[in-house]
Amino acid sequence: MTGIRTMVVAGVAAAAVVTGFAGTASAAWEPKQPIQILVGFSPGGGTDIIARNIASAAQPFFPVPLVVVNKPGAAGSIAAETVKNSKPDGYTLFVAGGSESVSMGNHQKLGYDIRKDFTGVMQITRQRVAITVNDSSPWKTVGDMVEAVKAAPGKYTFGSSGAGSTYHSIMLVLAHEAGLDMKHTPYQGGAPSLAALLGGHIDVTPLAPEESASVYEAGRIRYLALASDGRSPALPDVPTVQEEGYDVFVENLKGFAGPAGMPDEVVAYLHDNFKKALESEAFKKLADKANLELQYRNGEDFMGAITDMYNQIGTAVK
Description:
- By secondary structure, the protein is α/β, with parallel strands linked by helices.
- The chain has ten helices and 13 strands.
- The strands form four sheets. A six-stranded mixed beta sheet has the order 4-3-5-12-6-13, sandwiched between helices. A three-stranded antiparallel beta sheet has the order 10-7-11. It has a two-stranded antiparallel ribbon with strand order 1-2.
- The radius of gyration is 19 Å and the shape is globular.
C-alpha cells in the first residue's frame, strides 16, 4: 500500500508536528500584513466554499485579514504555480490537495512539482470518491465490473470530470490494478459526467457522494465502492475498492500549502491558528451545513499523502 498517513481531528493532540517542527502558538513570527489564500477555481465551488468557511472561522485567531482570492484556470494549476513562485514568507497560500496536486502533473507538464515546490500547512477536509453506475446496470460490485470488462476488452466506457482530473486518474489506477481495458470519455466536471451516466452514455464514472447524493437517495445510481482507505460513516454499507481486492486509494483532499522554503516558525504559527479554527464550534457548524467531512493532517503528513497519491497515479499512467 502507499502508506498514506491519516489523522482525524478527534484523534490528534493539539501539539501537532508540522514539517518536522513542533509548533506553538507563541512562535516568534506573527503576520503584519493580510494573508492571501488562493483558490484555483471560481467562486461558489467546493474548494471556494471550504476556503471561505475556514477563513471565516480562523479570522478571530489572526491579527491580520485573511483574504480569499479566486484565481481560476487550468484545473487549479494557475493558482498553484502562482504560490510556487511567491515569496516563502507566509503571506501567500493556496488550497491544495485536488487534481492540481495529485493528478495533473502525471498527465502533462506543469510549472511546478507538487512533491518539492511547496510547504504543507495543514489538511482540513477529505472528499471521498465513489465508483458509480446507473441503477439499471447489472454490476452490483467492483468484482462484477471487472469480470464484465475483462470478458469484453474495449467495450465499456468510463466517464470523468476531465482529462487528467482526479476522477480520470482513479479509473486509471483501478484499470492498472485490475488489468482492465476501458474507453475514457471526459466531461467538463462531475455534473455532466453524472448526466451522461443517467442517460446511459457511459457505463461507469467516479463521483463524489456530495455531488450525487440526491440521485443516489432516489435510487437512480449505485455506488459500487469508495476509493478510500476505510468506509464512510455516512455510507456504511458501501465497501472500499481495497476491500474488493484492488489497491486503490485516491481522494480529493483539501488543505493549505505555501511555497517551498517557508521558515519553521511561520509554518508553526499558521498551522496552530488554523487548527484552532478547525477545532472551533463555529467551523464545525459551517462544515456540517456545507456537508464537509473533516480530516486533519499536519503539514508534513498532508504533503506526504499528496505525494503518495501522486506516485500511485504516476505508476498507473506510465
